[in-house]
Design a protein that fits this description.
With 702 residues, the protein is α/β, with parallel strands linked by helices. The chain folds into three domains: 277 residues, 2-enoyl-CoA Hydratase, Chain A, domain 1 (Alpha-Beta Complex); 181 residues, NAD(P)-binding Rossmann-like Domain (Rossmann fold); 198 residues, N-(1-d-carboxylethyl)-l-norvaline Dehydrogenase, domain 2 (Orthogonal Bundle). Helices cover 49% and strands 12% of the residues. It has 28 helices and 19 strands. Strand 17 and strand 18 form a beta hairpin. The protein starts with a strand and ends in a 9-residue tail after the last helix. The structure holds 1,4-dihydronicotinamide adenine dinucleotide. 1,4-dihydronicotinamide adenine dinucleotide (NAI) binds next to helix 13 and strand 17.
């Protein structure tokens, strides 16, 4: 996997190439191989290398990180610390070589990959669309443990380094060059040549000129860095509410590390990494990482190759779907009955690509080229060339059925027809279809450009190739895909509904709107339920709840309240009236008149712990129902769906993981207690009780 050769100029070229995977992961074994190669190179005398280039054997990735599977074996803080020490020491050998080293980076370079590169004398990157550099360890509840937390701030300054490590975000080529993370950008075809030229320059003592930081930045990275650390901590606490230990540990390790020698800093990094490997948050997030990759349904058919997508409806969702399809290289034929809607869609697509150009993620030329693949229309001409059509018109059963009949006449006999309904059963939409086997649900979340999940819903009659093709499109769009059985609300909205129902109950019990939203954020949700309902639209939420009411039965009691809101002309953000006021279109304070819509308008406080228990219990119990009804085929599908679909707190690992952590017998007991106090809506799911009695868990114990 790690090979090296010396060229005729005595430059060593170390190639990293995972033999079985399309992506280069660094396993423990690979790190040991790298160590052997480095030891060997260090001792070479005949000829003595002029320098070394590290390059990947893959067409579009350098190294995507350390193999996380290897982390699953950590049982103690010391296990994690030991691994960190090994990583630091092996990568450290690059810096100790008696000649310069250059990382030649084409494609993704993340985590351990970037840490390797940071130990090199210089980094040359390409302008390949997949070239991106980042330290995403925080997303697994960890810190960069193979020297990254110490090398990065020393190279790019405290501010930029903290920003990268606390968000885990990708840095694209031009910003990477500007911040000094990369020394040169070249095109992929000349990467090796450019890296070798850099080796030669370095060997002659010509050091790369790194961009000079503006004086304010120099101050903030230097004498005023205390301000940066204080600001970062404040921001972390405001966004994570103290639910995540890793970001605080990153700040601590960087801050204290910079006050010490490099060796002292590395020691702190090792200790911090070791400690974090034993936190429940890291375990939950690692579980999610594997659940996200493992939740792929075993497909029984080959997908049809995709070139063109037809989209029906150019509203909020249709525009978002079109944007993402175009971004991923697909041709889009977009139909609406309203010219203005098509104009707005074209505008929003243009704005999206302008933003990408501005951030230099794509060139203006490529963005312009992409837009030539978009064509709006008010007719069906051109739809027969689409391998898949996604319908995103109003949420109205008869309209969707009518359009389906039109579509079946307009597309080719193989075209898949996907409907982006948020709650209507696919079986009903496809009731009169001539080819129900080619009809499927594809439930996106808003905003489509940002939300990472798509739920794919098969009806009883959907065939395997339709499913395979739709899954392929979801993946091509860069989404995490979960396959769900046809049932009102599918999975994500289904578990969300009892949570929103409990929200109304808590408001009826007197809790103020803003306090409730604040509590939910403290629990780890990205937004509170009242804000969320305002965003989705109270009318939309009401419609979804009404579709689900007959299935959820007594667990859903507050549908009347939704009606009261719509009767009162309160639709949420879109008409500036909801739980909150929206002066000039921006979210303002709570609209206190909203309390008049409750049977008990007086407000009172309810302790956080009680609110947390009620909201979480309603949601988790519904998840238990979903699994026993066969809506999803495994707990990991449900955990991934909840987290990526509506932001269930990742540090809890998803509803099923969270129930396991509570202990199923304890959770059943909690539900009985809540049912006694608040009513039968908390009666535990029978399948949950059975599991608890049998001493089973959702996931095998570790
Ligand atoms: P929207 O109201 O923004 O857009 C609907 C578009 O459909 C309008 O531009 C309208 O002119 C067009 N349309 C209506 N009849 C048509 C016809 N006969 N032929 C072609 N176009 C027609 O609605 P939005 O929010 O984009 O929702 C679309 C669908 O997506 C609905 O089924 C909704 O339930 C679903 N959905 C919405 C989500 C959201 O957050 N808004 C999330 C997930 C799904």
């Amino acid at each position: 996997m790690i090979l090296y050769e010396l060229d005729d100029q005595a430059i060593a070229v170390v190639t990293i190439d995972h033999p079985e995977e399309p992506l280069n992961f660094l396993s423990f074994q690979a790190i040991r191989q790298l160590e052997e190669v480095l030891d060997h190179l260090a001792q070479l005398t005949e000829p003595r290398p002029v320098g070394v280039v590290f390059i990947s054997g893959k067409p579009d990735n350098f190294i995507v990180g350390v193999d996380i599977k290897d982390f699953l074996g950590f049982r103690t803080v010391e296990d994690g610390a030991e691994t960190s020490r090994t990583g630091q020491s092996v990568f450290g050998k690059i810096g100790q070589l008696p000649f310069p080293s250059v990382a030649a980076i084409n494609g993704t370079c993340l985590g351990g990959g970037l840490e390797l590169a940071l130990n090199c004398t210089s980094r040359i990157i390409t302008d390949h669309p997949k070239t991106a550099l980042g330290l995403p360890e925080v997303k697994l509840g960890l810190l960069p443990g193979a020297s990254g937390s110490q090398y990065l701030p020393r190279l790019v300054g405290v501010q930029k380094a903290l920003d990268m490590m606390l968000t885990g975000k990708n840095i694209y080529p031009y910003p990477a060059r500007k911040m000094g993370l990369a020394d040169e950008i070249v095109s992929p075809g000349v990467l090796l040549e450019a890296a070798k030229a850099q080796v030669m320059r370095l060997a002659k003592g010509q050091h790369p000129t790194r961009p000079k930081r503006p004086s304010l930045v120099r101050l903030l990275d230097g004498p005023l860095k205390g301000l940066v650390f204080r600001g970062a901590k404040k921001q972390v606490l405001a966004t994570t509410r103290g639910n995540y230990p890793a970001p605080l540990e990153i700040i601590r390790v960087v801050k204290q590390g910079l006050g010490r020698s490099l060796a002292g800093g590395l020691k702190l990094e090792t200790q911090g990494f070791g400690r974090l490997t034993q936190t429940p948050e890291h375990k939950a997030m690692t579980h999610l990482f594997f659940a996200g990759r493992g939740s792929k349904t075993a497909l029984q058919a080959q997908p049809r190759p995709l070139q063109q997508v037809g989209i029906l409806g150019a509203g909020l969702m249709g525009s978002g779907i079109a944007t993402v399809c175009l971004d991923k290289g697909l041709t889009v034929r977009h139909k609406d009955i309203d010219f203005k809607a098509l104009g707005r869609a074209r505008g929003s697509i243009q704005r999206y690509f302008d933003g990408r150009v501005k951030k230099r993620i794509v060139s203006r030329r490529d963005a312009g080229l992409t837009l030539t693949h978009y064509s709006p229309t008010t007719g069906y001409a051109g739809f027969q060339r689409s391998q898949i059509v996604i319908e995103a018109v109003f949420e109205d059963l008869s309209l969707k059925q009518e359009l389906l009949a039109d579509l079946e006449g307009a597309v080719s006999p193989e075209t898949v027809i996907a409907t982006n309904t948020s709650s209507l059963p696919i079986n009903q939409i496809a009731q009169e279809a001539r080819h129900p086997e080619r009809i499927i649900g594809m439930h996106f979340f808003s905003p489509v450009e940002k939300m990472p999940l798509v739920e794919i819903i098969t009806s009883r009659r959907t065939d395997e190739q339709t499913l395979a093709t739709t899954v392929a499109l979801g993946k091509r769009m860069g989404k995490t895909v979960i396959v769900v059985q046809d049932s009102p609300g599918f999975y994500v909205n289904r578990i969300l509904t009892p949570y929103l129902n409990e929200t109304f109950q808590l408001l009826e019990d007197g809790l103020p709107v803003d306090v409730l939203d604040g509590y939910a954020r403290r629990m780890g949700f990205p937004v509170g339920p009242c804000t969320l309902t305002d965003e989705v639209g109270l009318d939309v939420a009401g419609k979804v709840a009404a579709v689900m009411a007959p299935f959820i039965g007594e667990r859903l009691q507050m549908t009347g309240h939704n009606q009261r809101f719509t009767d009162d002309g309160r639709l949420g953000r879109k008409n500036g009236r909801g739980f909150y006021t929206y002066p000039k279109g921006k979210k303002g304070p709570v609209d206190a008149t909203v309390y008049q819509l409750f049977d008990h308008p007086q407000r009172q406080t309810i302790p956080y712990e009680q609110v947390r228990e009620r909201l979480l219990a309603a949601l988790l119990n519904e998840a238990a129902f979903c699994l026993e009804e066969g809506l999803i085929d495994s707990p990991s599908v449900g955990d991934v769906g909840a987290i990526y679909g509506f932001g269930f707190p990742p540090f809890l690992g998803g509803p099923y993981w969270a129930m396991d952590q509570l202990g199923l017998p304890a959770f059943v007991e909690q539900l009985h207690r809540l049912a006694e106090r608040h009513g039968s809506r908390f009666a535990p799911a029978p399948g949950l009780v059975k599991r608890a009695e049998a001493g089973e868990r959702y996931y095998p114990g570790d």
